[in-house]
Each structure stands twice: as C-alpha cells, then as structure tokens.
Amino acid sequence: MKTFKIGGIHPAENKFSAHQKIQTAPLPKQAVVMLGQNLGAPAVAVVEKGAEVKVGTLIAKAGGFVSANVHSPVSGKVAKIDEVVDASGYKRPAIIIDVEGDEWESRIDRSEDLVKDISASKEDILAKIADAGLVGLGGATFPTHIKLSPPPGKKAEVLIINAVECEPYLTSDHQLMLEKSGEILVGIRILMKAIGVTRAIVGIENNKPDAIALMQKLAQNELGIEICPLKVQYPQGGEKQLIDATIGRQVPSGALPIEVGAVVQNVGTAFAVYEAVQKNKPLIERIITITGKSIEKPSNLLARIGTPLSELIDFCGGLPEDTGKVIGGGPMMGKALLNLEVPMTKGSSGLLIMPSLEAEREKMRNCIRCAKCVNVCCMGVEPYLLMSLVENEMWTEAEAAHIMDCVECGSCSFTCPAARPLLDYVRLGKNKVGAIIRSRK
Amino acid sequence: MSDILITVLTLGLLGAVSAVVLYFVAQKFKVYEDPRIDDVEAVLPAANCGGCGFAGCRNFAEACVKAETLDGLLCPVGGNAVMTQVAAALGQEAVASDPKIAVVRCNGSCANRAHTNTYDGAQSCAIAVSLYSGETGCSFGCYGLGDCELSCQFDALYIDEKTKLPVIDEDKCTSCGACVKACPKMIIELRKKGPKSRRIYVSCANKDKGGVAKKACSVACIGCSKCQKVCAFEAISVENNLAYIDDTKCRLCRKCVAECPTAAIVELNFPPRKEKVEALAD
Amino acid sequence: MNKLIVSPSPHVHGGDSVKKNMCGVILALAPALLVSLYFFGLGALIVTLVSIASCVLFEAIIQKYLLKTEISIKDGSAFLTGLLLAFNLPSNLPVWMVIVGAAVAIGIGKMTFGGLGNNLFNPALVGRVFLLISFPVQMTSWALPAKLPMTYTDAVTGATPLGIMKEGLMKGETVSTIMSKLPSLQDMMLGNIGGSMGEISAIALILGGIFLLWRKIITWHIPVSMIAAIAIFAGILHTVNPEHYAGPVFHILTGGVLLGAIFMATDYVTSPMSKKGMLIYGTLIGVLTVLIRVFGSYPEGVSFAILIMNAFTPLINKYVKPKRYGEVIKK
User: I need a surface site. Which of A215, A279, A305, A363 has the fewest CB within 10 A?
Assistant: First the structure.
C-alpha cells in the first residue's frame, strides 16, 4: 500500500458522521456572504443595497488576479453591505441578503441527470470555472482557474485528485464519493481536458473501502483514470505528501507542484467543476460535515454559503451544554471559532464540536529532546529547533533551518510529550520570515 | 637534576618563541581604534538595550565619536546625565532632551472589558494576534500575554495579575522603547515624562465606532470629540473614532479628563482633584 | 453559553507525556531490577532504594530552595535517574557514597544546566563516573552473585569478567586460558556474574529493550548501531589476534554494553535528534567503548564512551540534519 515517505502520524479517526446520507440544510433567513472567501484578494461587490438577487446572481466580482467571483446563494433582497465579524474576530466586508423564497437563475440546470458529454472547449471550461467562482474546496480556497492554468513553460503531466480526507472526524468527501461518483468522474474528465493531460490518479485512503470499490468499478470504463488506495496516515491530504504518495515525486523546496508535472485538485472541487461546466451552477453551496463526540446527530449537510453556522448546529440537534471548543474544519488544521454567528464560506469543510474536557491543552513542559517531533515532521524539518529559534527571534537562522518548508500540519504539536506548542511558534516564525523574504524582493 | 633542567629549558624556550611570535602577530593584525570610543563607552550604562537605535553601547559610542554634534543622539537609559558625560568626554556641547517614559494606551482590565472567549494557545501576544482578535470584544486592546514584559531588560514592566494589563514602574523605565517594538498591537507609546511625572493621555486604542467600542469595553474612547472641544491648546485630535493627545502641546490642564464620558483619558501623578479645588477656593 | 476556548491548531493531542515515557523506561528496567535483587539480595535493595530516594529528594530540594521553581518530581525523571544510577553501582557500595553519587548526578549533572531537558550529560553517568574516580576501590569491588543473599557491605567480592580479562591479559595470559576461568555464556545471559547491579543479565536487559521499541519510546538506531560497532570492531581485533583480543560476543555480553546501549545512550536529552545523527552517535560510542576497554587502563569503557559522545551531541545536531522533503528531486 502506498503512502508518503517522510514523517506522519495516526490520530484517532473518530469519523462519527461516516455513511450519513447528505441532507439538505434549511435555507437561512438571512444570508451573510463574505467578500473574502478565497485565498488572495477579496471580491468586490457589484450589487447595491436593496438589489433583488436570485440564487446564482453574481454579487461580487474577482478583485484581482488571485481572486474569485461570489454569487448569491439565496434569492431575496440585499439588506446591506457592511463589515461583519469573521471567524478570527476581525471585521471584514460582507453582503447581507434577506431571503425571500428560493428562485434560481434560469441558466442553471437543476435536474439530477448526469450529463456525460463534455461539449465545452478547453478555453470554455476555464472561463466557466472562473465565472462560477470556484476555489479549492479542501480548505485552502485557492481559486481553481488559476491552479488550472500552469505558468508559461511548465507542462502538467498528471492530474491528482485528492480524495484522501486525512483529517479526523471529517466525512464530507467520503459521502460525496458514495453519492455522486458519476458526477465526480465527469468532473475529473473536464479537469483533465482543461489542463491537457491524459492521466488522472484519485488518491483515497483505505479507511474508505466502499468508496474505493465504487470508484474503481466506475473507473474501469474510463481510460486514464486510476484509483490509488493509500495507507491511512496523516497528513496524506497535504498536496506535497499526496504527490509523493501517488506518483513518488517530491516537490522541491519553495516550488509549486507543477514543477514535478502534477496538478492536485480536491474531489469536492471536481464535483463543483462538473456542476459549473455541465450545469452552469456557480459555487453557492457545498457539503459540510457537522460532527463531534457530543453532538446529537453527526451529519453531512448540503448547505448554502452564507448560512450562519449556529443554524447548521441547531439542525443537527443543537450545541451541547458542555461544549468547550467549536472548530471550523478538522481538528488538526481547523480554526477555532470564537463566535457561532459567523457564516459558512466556500472553505467550510466541517464543523467540529468538542466537549470542554477535550478542548483544553495540556500544560507545557521543558523540551526533553525526545526527537519525536523530528520523526513525525512530514517535511523533514526540526520543529524543536525552529521553536527555540523563533522564541529567541533568530529569523536568519530560522530561514536557514527551512522554516518556510513547514506545511503547518500540526503533527509536531500533536506528538510532543511535553505538550509544547511547537506549531504556534513555527507559524509565527513563518509570518516573520515570510515578511523578511518579501521585503528583500 | 638534569631532568628538571631539561624541562625548565624546554618550556622556557617554548615560552620565549611563542612570545616573539605573538608580538609580531599582534603588530601585524593591529586595528586602529579611536581611543575616545573607549572613553565614551565607559560612561554608557552598558545595558546594550538598543534603545538608542544602535545595536549596542559600543556602536552608540562609535556613532557619538563620528558625529559632528550630539544633537539627535540620546542614550534613553542614561538620559541627560549620561549625555553630559559623553559630551564632556568628546569635548562637545551637550544637547538636552525631554525625558520620556512608556505608557500603555489600554485600560481594558478584566473588570472593564468582559471576556467573550478563552485563549488557550502559546503564551505570546504575537501568536495570539496572528490567530485572532483576542479574548474580548475589542480587537485593538491589550492581550495581556506579556510580550512587553519579556522584552523589558530593566524589570520595569510586569503584567498585573488582576487586571491582566502591563504596569510600568516609573523609577525603572528607561524609555528604551523595547516594549513599544514588542507590542504587536502598538498600544505602548513613549511619551514625555512631564514635570513631576505628571502625564495625561488617552488610554485606549480602539478605532471602532463609539457604540461598538463602548459595548466591548466600559472605558473605551468612543470618539465623541468632547475632549477636543474643551482643549484650549489644540493638543487633542480625533481620528478613526479615537482621540489622541499631543504631548508637545498638552499643558496638563486636566479639563479633558473631567470631560471624558467614558473615563478613557487618564491622568497620572496629579494631586487629588478635590484638594486642589479647595486650595483654589482658599 | 460557556465561553468558547480558542487556540491555534492542532486541536487534538496524541496523549503522549513526559511521565508516560519515563514510566515506560522504568517499567522496562523492571526485569533487570528483579534479576539483580535475586542475585545481590539485600544489598541491591538498599542501594536501589537509597539512590532513588536521594535523587528525588535532591531534585525537590534544589527546585524548591535554590531554583525556586515548580517541583517537577512527579514526571518521574528523577526517579529514573536514581534507578539508572543504582544500576551502575556495585550492590555493596556504602549508603553515604550512594547519596554522594545521587547529589552529583542530580545537582551537577542535571540541575546546574537548568533541569530536565537542558543537561548536556547523562546525569546518572555523571554520578557514576564521579564515584568511580573518587572511590575507585569501593566502586570496583563487586559482590559475587548468590541466591537471595542477605548480605550488604559484607558481601563476598570478586572481579567482573572484564576485570578478570584485563588482569589476565596484563599478566600475559592468552584469551583462551582466561576464557576458561570465566563464567559460562549461559551465566552471562542470565546474570549469574559479578558486576554493577543492572548490567549483569543480558536477557533481562534485552527484554526491556524490546518493550521500549514496542512502545516506541526509543528507536532502534542507537542500540543497534552501538552494538554492531562493538561487534565489528571487536571482531576485527579478534580475527587479527585471537589470543590477545577477546571476541565480540564476550564484549557485548559483559560490562554495561547492553545497559548502556538500551538505556543510557538512548537517553532523550543527551542523544542526537536526527536518525542519521543517532547512527553516528551509536557507532562512535561502540568504537570508543572497545578502544577504552582494549587499550585503556580501565577494564570498562561504556560510561566514559557515552559521556564523551554526549559532549559531541550538540555538534552532531548542528551538522547532521534529517532528510527533508523535496531535498532530493526524483524525476
């Protein structure tokens, strides 16, 4: 069984919501659509207060090269364009829409029929993906159309589909594969056409044998699409680790995957690509896992972007009494929320509710130099060293120790017997060193 | 006997040869340094705090020796006293400057500013700031995790257990500015120490609109401009919903302090107001 | 609603702790402790208890009154140092010497550097070597093994196999004649030989080592490289002159090689961080051990070899780095 070669850990999987059928979440009364939902520049609003919008109406245009369009996820009236508190507590611009009915733009094909023939040309596909405001749905939210257009002089050789879902608790990709496998395969074909490759590899961890079997069965008839079962190991869903695991190549330090001829897309993105190209449907809803040990009904929901997260939690049985922490995303790389009124965004892959007993961190102790952080580091750097360099503000030395290679997977902090917040410091160091590197240019 | 002789002779010869070699090496690699640098360095506090803007005391001494006038060069730790000595060592005129001190522009103690969540990450303001807006509804105020305390080389600053805010020890603060650089929220400012250490400043950094700021913290500046209107010396400006008192213009009349509806303006080391009123009445 | 807790990711922890690691090592030492209690009886019991108690006590006292920090004896590291120190002492050592050894181990070996995690040298070995140099006679008169003896400082003493070998070679005897005077291989495996309390039984130590590897408390790199280096180096010498140099099996089973390789050299704090570094470190300890044993004046060299390599650990950490992702581009 294939896997990546350096480091890695095995956190408890806790996939409580596995095999829960995807349910459609109720429409919110008021949708709060953030303008900055993607990595890069935020979008710029193109509607005014009071404007009537339908589901799929363009409400904000990409605000730069690395940016993505935003469409209305609901129908109704724009109540205001204002700053709202986002998941990190800072105020960010958003379009707030009062929901009235559920009227969709007429160009969107809402039927369930599987459209297999890809009539669009390569350019059409890229244009449609850009129009639909697609971003990477694995959590990084990098605009998809940019990732599909390799820089001049670089040639993609293989498309890698990330269906690993290595984060504990999360199950949305798993369930999507079980219910929408046909659509996903068409989506993969479209992606292959867009980047001009004849080979695609779907990496799935073998804790999802049913999804592997189903995808393998369907892929038999598809020339060039391989299903690659992978040994369960975190952080296999990291782009660099997945490339290593599937095709045995390693992306050089500081370079992009295209350097080794690979383009990686999330399986959820492949589905969204299918919908955008074959059904003209922009990215207005996505699958989100609502899960946790204490929540009544762990579920996989199809929810509109802009729905307040508290409404999704209420739909799954409400917030348990003893909740200590609510995490947007998985437990390893997700973001702890300080306010449940924040809306769902394009990058919301899950919502994890943690009881207070589990939520608190252990007390930090002296480093005992056990080297466990070094052994689990998937990038082969030395977290213990980076942490002490950052504590002492030795930025030059930290850069020389390859601090910028860190992918922030959190394996070091997870493993540390002395419960040292290694990644907290490394992340701070990355910010500082990154700023120094940028100022040099 | 001969054993001892041989040993003594060998070692003696070795010593002599080494001495000669060392002498020539020292001559060869001799670097000329202005002896006045040593003189200046001798009167500096040797704290190497970097508050003067140079890497350490020796670098500052070099700069003093090279400079044509001492204007603009100040050892904040030693203050005017040390600069007079430096001037004497260099045979130059001393240029006096106002003593300064660090002030914390946030009064959001646990009582004034309710916590809305609990931070459980690494105990570092820089890390918390890059993560989120902090434990309270105010995203401009002090996080209370003590980056400033760590940066202070003079033990002049500590985080109060109760209020979770930094407290500055006036006697120890040398206005080196390390805490100003360390604070990621840019709350700490170097201000004129003032006569008898009397100072007035706006103890708030919140740029939110009045209502939002007030909801998050009872002593927030709400940008109401009342202080600006009452000030007779045009020392106060209000920008982005936040008042600022220019310490070069402020005459310490204390009118703004009485006017502020949220008690965001703080006066330090003044005699109690009531007594003063009585004294005037007398 | 409760106030939510906010922290940077990751939000889960693997559950490993310093205490778990220390307790794991202590548990792994249990078989060896039982063997030494069986063969050295009362003496072993007294030395072990005194060593552990004084190490824990010294750590608590120093932390409370000198460093004025939180007392961290609950993490088990002082207990482990005490146990390892006892394992490196003869079972008939007077109580006061054990206490002096513990004071040096904890006070000089550990606390002067800033406590757990900061010490440059293995504390137990610092204590042991201090005693060895200060009290060479008491430290090299070994109680002979018996069945549950109730003797302490009045135990019958004799030399260790390594001592017999060294002495024999000095007298000009050949290896084969000396070997005939030595305990059998089986006795060495079980522990029916003279020596430090913890080093006598090869089987018990290997059992402990397997436990440590299974619980992933240590990796194989240091013990295997160290033992392999001893085997190869001793093997070469033995092949060159079998009558003057003892064979590799003798070298590995005698003295503290197994105790050193499995429990002392693998000490987290004082061993290198990268796997490559661990291999270099282990190999050099092995080579130094044989060098000291064969060409030095002491019959035993493991403690010195480990301490010497402890000093090189920071240097190894600086220059030997783990393999990074993307370092070698495979096309």
Answer: A363
